[in-house]
Structure formats: structure tokens, C-alpha cells
Amino acid sequence: xxxxxxARLAELNIELPKAAVPVANYVPVVIAGNTAYVSGQVxxxxxxxxxxxxxxxxxxTDQAAQAARLCGLNIIAQLKxxxxxxxxxxxxxxxxxxxNCLDSFTEQPKVANGVSDMMVEVFGEAGKHARSxxxxxxxxxxxxxxxxxxxxxx
Length: 154
Fold this sequence. Notes:
The chain has helices at residues 4-11, 61-83, 108-123, and strands spanning 29-32, 35-42, 44-45, 48-49, 89-100, 130-136, 145-153. Helix content is 31%, strand content 29%. It has a 5-stranded mixed β-sheet with strand order 1-2-7-5-6. α2 packs across α3 (108-123).
């Protein structure tokens, strides 16, 4: 029987990607007490990298917000794999959003809204979080966005 969050995903017609396997010497999720730390998730869908390039050059702000949303789906997929039950998520505490962008690009908060809005859609009040939205000169594999997360769990 699906839990409350799984039912919410179905209601929203949100499909989760397969949780990505680490490509270096780290783990996707560390659980310490009642906190889950999710490693940076990039714009990959079932093994295929998407949104390769710079925001403000190859991608618009709206496209980058979709890239951030994809990173959020990967965060949820990693949580599902690590926790087994997404209903264990008590609160999305903090998201760190990194945007691979031109030096002149200043709309990182609008890009971050792509993942922030999705977390609230899925988790409701528990999806409201603190966040950082930072522009960087490059990201691994030249992806447009990377997002990491700190989650309170039961």
C-alpha cells in the first residue's frame, strides 16, 4: 500500500527517476540521527544527463527552473531508496541550489524556485525550507543546476 507522499506524487502525475549511483567516493544519502543529508543531485533522468550548458547562454531562467525541479526529483528518489518510505520525511529543512551560469546572470533565486515550488507541492507545509541559490562558473559534467538537501526524518 502506497503511503501519503507516494499517493501525492501519483495525484500530481510526478514520476520519480531511478536513483543515480555515485560516480565518485561518496554516498548519495547520509543519515545521522533524525537528519538525512542528500548529496548534490544533478540534472540526470534515468542515467541520461539533461540540461548540459550554462544558464543565461544555452538555457533561459524558466528552462533552468525545470532543471532545478529535475534535481529535486532526484533528491526525492534518493530519499525513497535510503528511507524506504517517503512518509518518514518530516521536513525539508534546507536546499542548496547551484546554478552554472554566466557571470552576468542574477536570477538564481528564480531558478531555485523550480525545486522549491516542487517540494511544497509534494510535501505541503513540510516542504517549506531555508535555501541558498548560488551562481557558479561550472558544475560537474557541465550540468546547468545541482541541488543538495538537508531533511528531517522520522
